[in-house]
Amino acid sequence: MAHRTSAQDVVKAIKDVDFPAGKDDLVQAADRSGAPQEVVKALRGIPPEQYANREEVARSVRTAPDSDLGTSPAQRAEQAREGGRPGQSQHLREVPKPPVEEELDR
User: Who has the most CB within 10 Å: 4, 52, 69, 82?
Assistant: First the structure.
C-alpha cells in the first residue's frame, strides 16, 4: 500500500518554520527536516500564498478525506454548509464549531 500523506505528517515536517511563511519556505523546511518525499511533494502542490500558521498549511495540502484532522461529524457538516475557497475540498475548509458544541462550551 502506498504511503498517504496525512495532515500530521505535514505539520511534523514544518514544525521548525517561523510563520508567516510562503510556500517555498515550507517546501525547503520540509526538505531540511528529512520529511518523506510524499510530504515535500504535497507541499509543492499548495497555492503560492503566505500562510499564517501550521493549521492553514495543513488545510491547504491535499490529504485523504479520512486523514487525521480530528473533526467531529457535526464539524464536517458545518464545513459542508460554510463553503470555502473556490476549488477547496470540503474536508479542508475551516472547522467552525457547530451551534451544539458552542452551546456545550458555555
Answer: 69
